[in-house]
Design brief:
The longest helix has 30 residues. The protein is mostly helical. The chain is globular. It comes from Angustibacter luteus. Keywords: Acyltransferase, Membrane, Transferase, Transmembrane, Transmembrane helix.
Length: about 350
């Protein structure tokens, strides 16, 4: 997830032409965040619509892993430095505090919930900002190891043994998705090659479609909880060995499905088409649909708008509305209005930077 331009491809060796910017990464970011919003919107209808439940369950099994892989690739050059800490503070922690306060206000006005004023346990959806801050802090240390994914995976598996981690500072989810984040640079670089292979695209499509049919065929008993990464083995009713094997399988499956999604995202190097250029630009501002849809979900649930049409129609309307929302919220006018909340540092520098005096 990124609200700024993504990193270009590494420079080519001397004597070779420079590599083309991997614009498909930006395009994939927008697709992934759109799936997040779709999953959250149709999730409001899980109790009324089998279609909504199937879509929600299907999306939740891989959309987080897709975002984490892309976030890991985007942070591949992150260093343990003061500059890195400053970016984490302004890009993640300040927006987190702002939207946590907005969530408190929305919940109070529309649901009558008294604010907890707690910033160690996140309101709905905001856990990802805290987790992303932690992954960016931890990433440089793991990448300094020879086999960085192995210790990250060990930590993810051991975390499930503790029933006390839970949602406090999103520690459980931080540990669960840490190996996915650490593997991000390696995986995404290979996806860049696999996307050029028709056989790989076909295999990705078949796997993702097959999984979707499997999830739909196991409704309403399909349990997606393990893919959240927030529950201990004990909370899931699993013993130690059973829990380790189940979590290992869930991590493998969610990563494979996320790779299938990234392989299937359309787009060519340099985004030569008009739609491709738009999607690439949209992918550089995914913080806007991500953060702005969270308080609106509270308003949408309170309004009951999705509860009025027939369940299937409401689900289809919800999907279309989510896509439209992700289109609108990356447009310049929306970014201009919401920028001080979503990108506080950028806007503070823009408005507070002293203008050069004319001679």
């Amino acid at each position: 997830m990124s609200s700024t331009t993504s990193d270009p491809a590494p420079d080519a060796p001397p004597g070779q032409p420079p590599r083309v910017r991997q614009t498909w990464v930006d395009q994939a970011r927008w697709v992934a965040i759109t799936l997040v919003v779709i999953g959250h919107v149709v999730g409001l209808l899980r109790g009324r619509s089998d279609l909504a439940r199937a879509i929600s369950d299907f999306v939740y099994t891989f959309h987080i892993a897709g975002l984490v892989l892309l976030a890991g690739w985007g942070a591949r050059r992150q260093r343990a430095s003061g500059e890195g800490l400053t970016k984490i503070f302004w890009q993640l922690l300040v927006p987190y505090v702002v939207f946590q306060l907005l969530a408190f206000a929305a919940n109070r006005v529309f649901e009558g919930a008294h604010p907890s004023w707690s910033f160690t346990s996140q309101t709905f959806g905001l856990w990802f900002l805290v987790a992303l801050a932690a992954w960016r802090l931890l990433g440089p240390w793991f990448h300094g190891l020879r086999w960085p994914v192995l210790p990250a995976l060990a930590l993810a598996l051991l975390a499930g043994l503790s029933p006390r981690i839970g949602d406090h500072l999103s520690l459980s989810r931080i540990a669960f998705f840490l190996p996915v984040f650490v593997a991000g640079p390696w995986v995404v670089d290979r996806v860049s090659h696999w996307r050029t292979l028709p056989a790989a695209r076909a295999a990705g499509g078949l796997l993702l479609a097959g999984w979707g049919l499997w999830v739909a065929g196991h409704q309403p008993t399909f349990d997606r909880t393990i893919f959240f990464g927030r529950d201990s083995y004990d909370a899931l009713g699993q013993g130690g060995l059973h829990g380790v094997l189940a979590r290992l399988a869930a991590l493998a499956l969610t990563t494979v499905l996320a790779v299938c999604l990234l392989v299937l995202v359309p787009g060519r190097p340099g985004a030569p088409t008009r739609v491709g250029r738009w999607a690439a630009e949209a992918g550089r501002h995914t913080m806007y649909p991500y953060l702005l849809h969270l308080p609106l979900l509270t308003v949408l649930a309170w309004s009951g708008l999705l509860g009025r049409p027939a369940p299937t129609i409401a689900t289809l309307v919800g999907v279309l509305a989510a896509v439209a929302f992700c289109v609108v919220t990356v447009l310049p006018p929306v970014r201009f209005v919401a920028g001080p909340f979503v990108e506080p540092r950028t806007w503070a520098q823009r408005w507070l930077r002293p203008r050069a005096r004319r001679p």
